[in-house]
Amino acid sequence: MDAERKQTYKTVKQLRSALAEGDSQRFQRTLATQPTLSLLKAIREQKLLVKNYAAEHEPVVEIVRTVASTVLSPEELAEYSNYLSFIGPWQKSKEHSEARLKSCLNNFPKVSIEELLQIFDKALDRFFSKLTIGAPKEDQTVADYEKCIHDRNGIANDVLFAALRALNYASRKVVDPSARKLSPSTRLSSIRRFYKAIQLASEVNSLDWVMDSVSYGDLVVSKLQTGSPIEARLEYADKKRSLMLNLAIRRKLIGVMHLPRNERYVREMLKASETSVLTEALEFYAGFVGENPRQIDMESLLRQSSARLAQVEAEDDLLVVASARAGKQDHATYYLTSMCLTWFGMAADAVQKAFPRSFRRRTSVPIPSSLIESAVSSVGGKQVAETIKALSSTLPTKSHHDLVRRPFLSVSEDDTLWLLNGDPELWNLKVREALLSGGKVGDAYGHVWEEFLAKSFEDSDWQLIGRNKRLRVAGQTATEVDLLLKKNDLLLVVEVKALIGSNITCYDHWRSRQTIEWGCRQAAAAAEFIKSNKNWLVSVAGKQLAEEVHHIQPLVLTNNDLLDGWQFEGVPVMGEVGRKAITTGAKVDYTDQSGRVVSTRWITKKEELTTDRILWSLQNPVELLIAPESLETSHRVLKLGDFAVLTPQFDLRDDLDESVPAIAVSS
Q1: What are 581-630's pLDDT values in tens digits?
Q2: Most buried in the list 22, 74, 619, 632, measured by CB within 10 Å?
Q3: If we measure between CA atoms, which residue out of 212, 201, 239, 206 comes closest to residue 98?
Q4: Which helix (H) or strand (E) holds 599?
């Protein structure tokens, strides 16, 4: 399987070279050497024809279409052919939308980076002021209320991503360090123009999202209709996977917003510095404008800080352990530096709002690097300046997604600014990515996560009968299995996939899915080996235990909850919610806003975890059982210039239980 993948990517590289040189004949010859389903899939996933779109596009598309007709079934060919026909109209629409965005900023005045950030903040304020959500209505179900919160959060993120794209593009065109300060009227007109730029950038982002979703296999083009406008109808490639992704994002959001968080080492480490750093930050910014810091509501800042610290999860604690095992001791520096930068940014915002007349230009006051270094160094942090650089971006960036990951802006050797409205609250994800740069920590993290899972099952009534076992055929290793777990007459053949990443783009999610798919194939191969080699299981578990096993089930366990509940090629994928469902049972606690449990719905109790019920749990994720959406879909129209895209959306169920309070839910 590895050899096939390597050959496929080698062929894709050769095809890319032929396209870059405009050599369609070499492209055709190369494609004919390996006309496989894997190659056709790679052409789409690598966006080969999209990235190399040119006037010669149509002949190349016909070459691919002809080869596809010899490989794919009629149904697969129709879908792939629609994709090929979709590229041209999409590209023209993308070029038109980008041209409108550029035109919008053509007459934008030259500004300093600080003033551009001011304009960015003000324009975003206009959007976000409209995105409020109140308390649940009396007749509103829990699931429906949570969906409303999720939808509003999705809109806010869409606006933020568009604003960051507009900011990144504007920084290339309009920034001039020597620019004079704008007059009030010019600043107001610039805010209006940037507001329009955000709307146009949103259109470009939507087009990118559509193509990425199609390329990476989340959506398929089911129908393409020419005319004015051109109309493309899209469908989910895997309805269950797409719905489970939405539900996982929602659960994470609700958990951070409403539910009590388990104690974490990293969170407690940060909380030890919380009050002192916030106090110092308030004194700095209030002193800068000659005001009394005691007039600032510290309790409000602490609530904001708690919301940020609530994002700390088990992954962060396990990453600290993995870093130590790999010989890296800078985890405290990274976490503290990122949070101190955030605390100072929050304090600057609080002072600006409390003293607007005194502090009109908060972005012109950089985060004081010396104070950050002092705060982090006082608790043992080292090389803070280098860490600040690693966690910061410089405008313009290669992609606006860099600003999503790192919303701290380096504007000079010593000065760092914070994108107040541009912070998507992913501060610990960028720390994780920074700590994982390099193979040693990543490998150690995988082992630590595997140990965590093994201990979790051992603490329940499962038996761990094997770890990291090699399965050999004729003296050669056929595959490996990470965990062998037994309960009743069921044997779980488990592949562990520990992933850390932001998953903020379709590409990020696709990369994670690739790893999970490979894990599913490994687990399936290991399960088939064990079924066909009874003596191997006897050699590992002993004759008595081996004879008790009547069901052998492959399973992938992952820390990526965005894929919890999915299946690939018949192999279930479980995250932490799924793991708990088969070890301690599954329930849903409905709570009021104080966290008091007011109602509990048991889905499976621990004593009910028979083999049949465990297998049922693998097929029926908890989130899917309580979701307001069904797997039925309808469509909404995205009007993107002269291009109409009908995108699928899940319909609401009509059997939701309305007898429970409409507050937060935990599973």
Answers
A1: 999 999 888 776 666 777 888 899 999 999 999 999 999 998 888 888 89
A2: 22
A3: 201
A4: strand 597-605
Instruction: Measure Cα distances from 444 to 269, 333, 378, 529 in Å.
Output: 22, 19, 28, 28
pLDDT, tens only, 379-423:
877 888 888 888 888 999 999 988 888 888 887 777 788 777 767
Closest to 337 measured CA to CA, from 445, 435, 441, 443: 435
Give residue 311's identity as a one-letter amino acid code: Q
| CA distances in angstroms from 18 to 27, 30, 80, 139, listed in the order given | 5, 9, 22, 61
Average pLDDT, the chain: 87
The contacts of residue 221 (CB under 8 Å, 6+ apart) are 79, 82, 83, 85, 86, 214, 232, 233, 234
Strand order in the sheet with 408-410: 367-368, 415-418, 408-410, 392-393
Q: DSSP assignment of 392-415, as one string?
A: EE-SSPSSHHHHHH--EEE-SSSE
Angle between helices 265-288 and 314-325 (to 10 degrees): 100
Question: What's 130's DSSP letter?
Answer: T
Residues in the chain: 667
Q: Are 545 and 577 in contact (CB under 8 A)?
A: no
Q: Which of 100-109, 445-454, 502-511 has the lowest mean pLDDT?
A: 502-511
Q: Under a CB-based contact definition with an 8 Å cutoff, are residues 626 and 651 in contact?
A: no
The model's pTM: 0.89
Give the number of other Cβ atoms within 10 Å of residue 256's Cβ: 17
What secondary structure does DSSP assign to 105-127, as a single string? TTTPPPB-HHHHHHHHHHHHHHH
Q: Is 336 helix (H, G, I), strand (E, B) or coil?
A: helix
Angle (nearest 5°) at CA 281 between 275 and 282? 90
Residue 53: which pLDDT band, with cuts at 50, 70 and 90? low
